[in-house]
Backbone:
């Protein structure tokens, strides 16, 4: 073997070693992705496209999807879930923006981190317990209706649970932190001199917000909205506990098909429809805001 | 009053227990280039931000173009500012940056475009109108920042150390360009810097600021040749500072004797009495060198020094001497003629200086001989 050939072989060996190292490092993530995400979805996809024709006999069919479109209750719940999720996302954004602004721009140092911790603390408690907390506050014999009677605002205790508004309150409360984190990080990276420069050139507060702050924070806003929207759309606990029988959340339909009806084929089809819906709305949202998915994900 | 674009009267700003700007009064003539020169922390940024309106003074008044600015918000003042890091809007093109202020005045899109193009033309950047801000070089960004402000035709343009972020070569170039721009537009510029060379080269008038007060306001030549305070003498330009006691003299000159016994003769000062502790200043370039003391002018007091080190810096080359008796360090500029280019470390040389071109002040508190 010549010297040059030996060197080339050595280089190849090293390149192969580097690739092996990279592969080993990525292995847990790849296994997680493959075994827990891709494989079940492939299985669900196969399930959703078959129909039981006899004992242990199945054929390919679009019946599950046909049922969804043929039964008004299903797609009514589907559309309702989408609209409520979009609404909850927008409310979360409107509520989180001033909070993020205060934490990122108005207070400094310790006070700023203290405020952020105050926002974080509720998340040390499990979601179930937090939601039960809302139930204690809002149910007919609960704290808030009792207070309303005492103050003479209502004659009888009113039931504040099981309304659409209650569901929205719960969803916004659960999602707030996930909107705050990307918003704070994107507002913190905004140079104060830009705001001052705009002000100096004659802009008022609203124009500064519209022309400087929002364009700068757009990737953060979009990132927060995507995360909150996905969490809300796929939420099961909050709508069920706070909305009760009236909640009509699509995840409940999926649960019912799998667990109560034992109709896995139908449940799988519903699962895919929900996935398609969330993908569609995220894509539309990105188009409308003129953001690119890659830029946005760097912010989260 | 109409020829004064900026009048400050007894302006005061305190932060907690620290006085940032201490009862300052000054005026800036229309169309002039006025610099505020001072070390960091002297209060110059606070002063500039009060003129721009970002900080409200605790006392006194600032009038711009003859109108008091008390209670007038920054977006309503006839003043624009070029920020230290320029603060160009990265989400907008060059043209949109320049149009920003015009749009806030409600001008139509066509009118805005026309005026911003005309302004970019004047700063030589018309072809960059649709470029992104981050595609420009440092010098180009500087010009966009100035164009963005000047397109609004402000009474006053404030500049907050805009050359600080540039490298040396570009800074030298931008200095000249800034001066030419100011001359071409005729707008009153108020410029703050800690770089004395920027202030001297650019300005019609310079205020030297220290601890919230102006030490001296004057032309660059005044500051350099006729400093009024020891701070100005040591801050503006290079200077040899000699602390000693006044030990005699006549109507015009004073003899200064240092604690270790070196005697020099410098220009007198009205407040200096015999026996006072004084600070004397001798600029490196007023010092004459000679291999034989007989070659020095006879009217000068003659001294001898030993070459400690040679500081070659092209046209600014200097030599560091040690006075032979006291071993005191003394900086001397080398003549441009190349006469002493062959000086060697350790060589003994005679030096003297013209008393007329030196300065002497009563020593500031905290100075010892």
Residues:
């Amino acid at each position: 073997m010549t010297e040059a050939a030996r060197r080339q072989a050595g280089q190849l060996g090293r390149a192969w070693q580097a690739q092996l190292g990279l592969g080993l490092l990525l292995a847990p993530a790849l296994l997680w992705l493959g075994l827990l995400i891709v494989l079940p979805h492939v299985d669900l996809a196969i399930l959703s496209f078959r129909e039981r024709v006899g004992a242990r006999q199945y054929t390919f069919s679009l019946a599950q999807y046909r049922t969804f479109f043929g039964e008004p209750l299903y797609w009514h719940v589907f559309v309702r879930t989408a609209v409520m999720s979009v609404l909850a996302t927008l409310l979360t954004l409107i509520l989180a923006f001033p909070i993020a602004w205060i934490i990122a721009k108005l207070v400094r140092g310790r006070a700023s981190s203290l405020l952020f911790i105050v926002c974080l603390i509720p998340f040390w408690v499990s979601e179930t317990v937090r939601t039960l907390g809302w139930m204690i506050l809002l149910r007919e014999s609960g704290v808030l209706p009792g207070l309303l009677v005492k103050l003479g605002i209502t004659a009888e205790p009113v039931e504040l649970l099981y309304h659409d508004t209650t569901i929205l309150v719960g969803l916004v409360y659960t999602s707030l932190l996930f909107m705050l984190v990307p918003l704070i990080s994107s507002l913190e990276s905004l140079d104060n001199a830009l705001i001052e420069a705009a002000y100096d050139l004659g802009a008022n507060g609203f124009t500064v917000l519209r022309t400087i702050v929002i364009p700068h924070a757009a990737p953060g806003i979009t990132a927060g909205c995507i995360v909150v929207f996905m969490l809300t759309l796929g939420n099961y606990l909050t709508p069920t506990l706070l909305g009760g029988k009236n909640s009509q959340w699509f995840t409940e339909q999926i649960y019912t098909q799998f667990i109560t009806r034992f109709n896995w084929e139908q449940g799988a089809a519903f699962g895919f429809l929900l996935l398609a819906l969330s993908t569609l709305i995220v894509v539309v949202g990105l188009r409308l805001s003129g953001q690119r998915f890659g830029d946005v994900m760097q912010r989260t | 009053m109409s020829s004064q674009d900026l009048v400050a009267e007894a302006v005061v700003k305190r932060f907690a227990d620290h006085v940032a700007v201490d009862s300052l009064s000054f005026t800036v003539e229309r169309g002039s280039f006025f610099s505020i020169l001072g070390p960091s922390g002297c209060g110059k940024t606070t002063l500039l931000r009060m003129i721009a309106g970002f900080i409200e003074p605790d006392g006194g008044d600032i009038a711009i173009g003859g109108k008091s600015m008390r209670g007038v918000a920054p977006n309503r003042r006839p003043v624009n500012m070029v920020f230290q890091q320029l603060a160009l809007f990265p989400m907008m093109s060059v043209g949109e940056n320049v149009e920003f202020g015009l749009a806030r005045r409600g001008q139509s899109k066509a009118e805005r475009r026309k005026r911003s193009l005309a302004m970019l033309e004047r700063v030589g950047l018309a072809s960059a109108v649709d470029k992104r801000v981050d595609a420009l070089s440092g010098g180009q960004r500087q010009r966009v920042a100035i164009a963005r402000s000047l397109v609004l035709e402000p009474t006053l343009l404030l500049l907050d150390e805009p050359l600080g972020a540039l490298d040396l070569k570009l800074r030298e170039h931008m200095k000249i360009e800034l001066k030419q721009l100011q001359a071409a537009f005729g707008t009153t510029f108020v410029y703050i810097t800690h770089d004395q060379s920027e202030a001297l080269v650019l300005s019609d008038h310079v205020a030297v600021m220290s601890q919230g007060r102006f030490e001296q306001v004057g032309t660059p030549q005044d500051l350099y040749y006729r400093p009024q305070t020891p701070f100005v003498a040591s801050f503006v330009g290079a200077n040899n500072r000699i602390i000693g006691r006044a030990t005699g003299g006549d109507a015009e000159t004073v003899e200064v004797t240092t604690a270790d016994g070196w005697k020099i003769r410098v220009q007198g000062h009205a407040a200096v009495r015999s026996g006072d502790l004084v600070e004397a200043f001798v600029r490196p370039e007023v010092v004459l060198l000679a291999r034989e003391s007989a070659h020095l002018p006879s009217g000068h007091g003659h001294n001898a020094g030993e070459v400690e080190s040679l500081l070659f810096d092209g046209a600014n080359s200097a030599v560091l001497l040690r006075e032979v008796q006291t071993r005191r360090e003394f900086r001397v500029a080398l003549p441009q003629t190349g006469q002493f280019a062959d000086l060697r470390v350790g060589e003994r040389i005679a030096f003297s200086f013209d008393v007329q071109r030196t300065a002497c002040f009563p020593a500031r508190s905290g100075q010892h001989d």
Observations:
- Chain B has two domains: 4-232, 239-362.
- Chain B touches chain A through 24 residues (CB under 8 Å).
- Chain B is about 25% helix and 35% strand.
- Helices of chain B lie at 44-52, 94-104, 109-122, 138-150, 168-185, 196-202, 220-225, 230-235.
